[in-house]
From TrEMBL:
Major subcellular site: nucleus
Cellular component per GO, a single term: nucleus
Skewed-composition ranges (Basic and acidic residues): 83-101
Domain of life according to the entry: Eukaryota
Protein name as annotated: Krueppel c2h2-type zinc finger protein
Residues covered by region (Disordered): 79-147
C-alpha cells in the first residue's frame, strides 16, 4: 500500500498512510519543524506530555483501566528516558480510534479469585460481531509499521514504543516506590488479599502446590498416509544439513515417521509452556528447515528411543554453526533465526551433554550481545556499535503473495506476537539460568518493554475470520513492566494474564533478585569494609519486598484448567524464594559437585565457598530458604505416586529438586560442624526428616539436630534421578551418592 502523505521537511522524507499521522509527526517536538504546539498538556499520573488535550484525555482513560502509561502519541521528557534518545525515530503512534476496536476493560473486571478463567474465551466473545471486515486502515499501529520502506520491516525484539518506562539503567529503586500513581481500586484489592508483614518463619502460611502430571505427553498415533508431507521435510533437512557426517544423515532419526513424531512431541510437551511459534500457520514443508531441525531435535529428547536422543546430540555438534553461516544470521537477523538459536540454547542447556551445556552458556551472551555495526537506516541514530542481537532488530517477511487485506493483517499480527513471545523466551532463560546455573544475567527487566502475550484462544486460533472476530473483542494487553511493578507492590496479576505471561512475570522477579544481589555484593563491601547497619537494613527491605511479591504471584498458580506453563512454574516459584537468600554456586562447590560454569576450582574457591555458606547458615534468613526447599521436595516426591525424573517432561523440575537437596544438606553439614557431638545417634527416614523440619521451622524452634539427618532424603532424591539422559543430572546422581557415602 502506498504512502501518499510525505513529510516535506528537508532530510526527512517519511511517508504516512493517513494525513493525521503526518500531522502528529509534524507536531513532534523532536522534529525541526515550524508547526510547534501552542500548549503542552502534562499527565498528572506519569511522565507523559501531550500536544492536544483530547489525546491527554484518552491517555488518562488508560490509567483508569489499570495501565501505568503508554506511548499513545505523548511525549516522555528527555530526563525521564535518557536512553530513548538513542533509539530510532519512528512515526508517532496513532490514537485508539485508529486501532482495532477493543472491549471496554472497565466492563470486564474479574475478581481476584477468578484466575482459573484466564485461558477461556470471554463470554462476550460469543456474541455475534457487527463490526465491518478489517481493512488496512483499521489495523493496530504496530501493523501499520510493518510495511514501511527501508528499515521499517526491522524492529527491535525487546522494545515496543507502545510500552515505555523510565529508564534508570541499573537503578531498580523505581520498582519499589510507593505506587502513588496507581488507582485506589488497586490498593483496596491488595489489602483484601495480602496479610500483614510477617515478623518471622512462624508467621508463614503453609501453602502447598502438589505437582501435576509428571509424564511425557504422547501424541496420538498418526495414519501412515499422513507422513507423506514429511518426505518433503526430510529432503529439505538433508539439503540444509548436508555438511553433517553421512552416518548421521543415514540415521533412522530422519525417517518421515520419526520426524513427524518428534514434531508432535515438541508441540505436546514443550510448546505449551514456551509458546513462541504459531502452530496454526507453521507449515513444516514451507518453514525454514533449520528451524524444523531445532524443533525435531528438541522433541526427540522426549523420545523413548535412546538412539534418537544420541542422534540429536550429534546434530547439535554442528547445528549452531550452520546457522551462523546462514545469510539469515546477518543483521538484522530473521525472526526464525533467533527462534532457532534460542531453541538450540534450550536443548543444549537443559537436555544434552556437559559440553553442550557449557557451549550454550558461552553462546547465550553471543546471541544477546554481539559487537557488530548495523548499516540499516533504522539504527542510524544509535551512537554505539555494541548492539544487542535480539535488541538490534529482527527482519520480518516483507510481503505475502496472494493474501487479501484481512489475511495479510493476520499474518503480520502473528509475526509481531511471535517476536514478542520470542523476546520473552530469551528473557526467561536469561533470568532463570542466573540462579539455576549460576550464570550472570545479560538482560534486565528494563530491557523488556513489551506487552504481555495475548490470550491463548487468540494465539491458537487457526481461522482468519475467527481471529478477526476475537481480536475485536479482546482486552488491551497490559505491559510487562507496569504489571511487574504492581506485582512488587503486592497487587495480584490481572486475571486475563495467560499462563505464559505468569511464567514471564515470575522470571521478572528472578531477574530483579539477581540484579539486586549483584548490586549489593558490590555495595556491601565485598573484599572491603563491612556495610553499615543502614545499608544492611535496605538490603533486608528489598528481600522482604520481593518475597511478598512472590507470595502475591503464587495466587495465580490456582487454575481450573491444566497448564504446562503453570506446572513448570511450581518448582520454579519455590526456587525464586530460595534465590533471594542463597548462592547456589557456593552450594555446588561445598558439595564437591562439578563446576556449574565449567571452570577449574582451586582450594581457595573451596575455602571461600565454605566460609560464605557458614555465614549464610548462621543467619535467620537461611530458614526461609530451607522452608521452600522442604516444600518443593514434598510437592515432587511425596505425592502418593513414584517420581521418575527420566519420565518428566519438565527438565528443570528434577534440577530444582537436586538444588533443594543440596541446600538442605549444606545447612545440615554446617550444623554438624558446629555441634560435633550432637545428633550422630539419630536417624530419620526421608518422610520423618521433612515432617520434623517443617514443624520445627514453622514453630520457630531449633533445627540444629534434625537438620543433620539428611542421608535418607538425599537417597530418595538420588533414586528419582536414575536413568536421566541429561548429563548434568547424571552428575547430580553421582554427587548425591558421594554425599551419602561421606555422611
Amino acid at each position: 500500500m502506498g504512502r501518499d502523505y510525505k513529510c516535506t521537511e528537508p532530510g526527512c522524507g517519511k511517508g504516512f498512510l493517513r494525513p493525521e499521522h503526518l500531522s502528529r509527526h509534524r507536531l513532534n517536538p523532536n522534529n525541526r519543524l515550524t508547526d510547534r504546539p501552542k500548549q503542552i498538556y502534562q499527565c498528572l499520573n506519569c511522565p507523559k506530555r501531550f500536544v492536544r488535550n483530547d489525546l491527554l484525555r484518552r491517555h488518562q482513560k488508560r490509567h483508569e483501566r489499570g495501565m501505568w502509561f503508554r506511548n499513545s502519541g505523548g511525549i516522555v521528557p528527555s530526563e525521564v528516558c535518557q536512553i530513548e534518545e538513542r533509539r530510532p525515530s519512528q512515526e508517532t503512534r496513532s490514537s485508539e480510534s485508529d486501532s482495532i476496536p477493543r472491549a471496554d476493560m472497565q466492563n470486564s473486571s474479574v475478581s481476584p479469585n477468578s484466575y482459573e478463567n484466564h485461558n477461556d474465551e470471554p463470554d462476550n466473545l460469543n456474541a455475534p460481531s457487527t463490526a465491518p471486515p478489517l481493512d488496512q486502515n483499521s489495523l493496530p499501529d504496530s501493523l501499520h509499521h510493518m510495511d514501511a520502506n527501508a528499515g521499517s520491516n526491522v524492529t527491535s525484539l525487546f522494545w515496543d514504543p507502545s510500552f515505555s518506562a523510565p529508564d534508570p539503567l541499573l537503578d531498580f529503586d523505581w520498582l519499589f516506590d510507593d505506587m502513588s500513581n496507581f488507582t485506589a481500586g488497586d490498593a483496596t484489592l491488595t489489602s483484601d488479599v495480602i496479610s500483614p508483614a510477617r515478623t518471622g518463619i512462624s508467621d508463614m502460611s503453609p501453602p502447598s502446590f502438589p505437582m501435576g502430571s509428571q509424564g511425557i505427553r504422547l501424541p496420538v498415533a498418526s495414519d501412515p498416509s499422513s507422513f507423506a508431507p514429511w518426505s518433503v521435510v526430510q529432503g529439505r533437512l538433508f539439503e540444509a544439513l548436508n555438511t553433517l557426517p553421512q552416518h548421521i544423515l543415514a540415521s533412522p532419526f530422519f525417517l518421515p515417521s520419526c520426524l513427524s513424531h518428534f514434531f508432535d512431541l515438541y508441540f505436546q510437551n514443550y510448546h505449551p509452556h514456551f509458546p513462541i511459534l504459531h502452530q496454526p500457520t507453521l507449515d513444516p514443508t514451507q518453514a525454514p528447515p533449520l528451524l524444523i531441525a531445532a524443533i525435531v531435535t528438541l522433541g526427540s529428547t522426549l523420545s523413548s528411543e535412546e538412539g534418537h536422543f544420541q542422534t540429536s546430540v550429534q546434530i547439535h555438534d554442528s547445528l549452531r554453526y550452520i546457522i551462523f553461516n546462514s545469510p539469515d544470521f546477518e543483521p538484522p537477523a530473521s525472526l526464525w533465526c533467533v527462534q532457532t538459536l534460542l531453541l538450540i540454547q534450550a536443548h543444549e542447556k537443559m537436555f544434552s551433554t556437559r559440553k553442550h551445556h557449557q557451549l550454550a552458556h558461552i553462546f547465550h551472551g553471543a546471541i544477546i550481545t554481539v559487537s557488530i555495526g548495523i548499516e540499516s537506516g533504522y539504527f542510524e541514530t544509535f551512537e554505539t556499535s555494541q548492539l544487542y542481537l535480539m535488541k538490534r532488530g529482527v527482519s520480518y517477511v516483507s510481503s505475502y503473495q496472494g493474501l487479501n487485506d484481512l489475511e495479510l493483517s493476520w499474518r503480520q499480527w502473528v509475526e509481531i506476537q511471535s517476536s514478542n513471545r520470542t523476546a520473552f523466551f530469551g528473557f526467561v532463560m536469561d533470568a532463570q539460568h542466573s540462579f539455576m546455573f549460576g550464570h550472570t544475567c545479560v538482560l534486565s527487566v528494563q530491557d523488556v518493554r513489551l506487552p504481555l502475550p495475548c490470550p491463548d484462544y487468540l494465539w491458537e486460533c487457526g481461522d482468519v475470520l475467527e481471529w478477526d472476530r476475537l481480536i475485536r473483542k479482546s482486552p488491551e494487553l497490559p505491559g510487562f513492566l507496569p504489571v511487574l511493578k504492581k506485582l512488587i507492590a503486592r497487587t495480584p496479576i490481572p486475571p486475563q494474564c495467560t499462563a505464559y505471561g505468569r511464567l514471564i512475570l515470575l522470571h521478572g522477579l528472578f531477574s530483579v533478585t539477581a540484579h539486586l544481589k549483584a548490586r549489593d555484593s558490590v555495595t556491601l563491601g565485598v573484599g572491603g569494609a563491612l556495610p553499615d547497619r543502614t545499608r544492611q537494613s535496605t538490603v533486608d527491605s528489598w528481600k522482604d519486598t520481593l518475597e511478598k511479591a512472590m507470595d502475591t504471584w503464587s495466587f495465580c498458580l490456582v487454575s481450573r484448567s491444566s497448564s504446562l506453563a503453570l506446572e513448570a512454574s511450581k518448582p520454579l516459584h519455590r526456587m525464586a524464594y530460595v534465590a533471594i537468600y542463597t548462592d547456589i554456586t557456593d552450594m555446588h562447590i561445598l558439595a564437591g559437585a562439578p563446576s556449574l560454569l565449567g571452570n577449574m576450582l582451586s582450594d581457595a574457591d573451596l575455602v571461600g565457598a565454605t566460609a560464605r555458606v557458614q555465614t549464610w547458615s548462621e543467619r535467620p534468613e537461611a530458614k526461609r530458604a530451607l522452608y521452600h526447599c522442604l516444600l518443593l521436595i514434598q510437592e515432587i516426591l511425596f505425592t502418593g505416586k513414584p517420581y521418575h525424573a527420566s519420565r518428566d517432561n519438565l527438565s528443570l523440575r528434577p534440577w530444582s529438586l537436586y538444588h533443594a537437596a543440596l541446600i538442605l544438606w549444606a545447612y545440615g553439614f554446617m550444623e554438624g560442624r558446629r555441634n560435633l557431638c550432637q545428633g550422630k545417634e539419630i536417624s530419620y527416614t526421608a518422610e520423618e526428616y521433612l515432617v520434623r523440619m517443617l514443624m520445627l521451622i514453622r514453630n520457630d524452634e531449633d533445627i540444629g539436630i534434625a537438620s543433620q539427618q539428611t542421608s535418607e532424603l538425599l537417597g530418595a532424591v538420588r533414586d528419582s534421578l536414575i536413568g536421566c539422559r541429561w548429563e548434568l543430572l547424571q552428575e547430580a546422581y553421582g554427587t548425591l551418592g558421594r554425599l551419602i557415602d561421606s555422611s
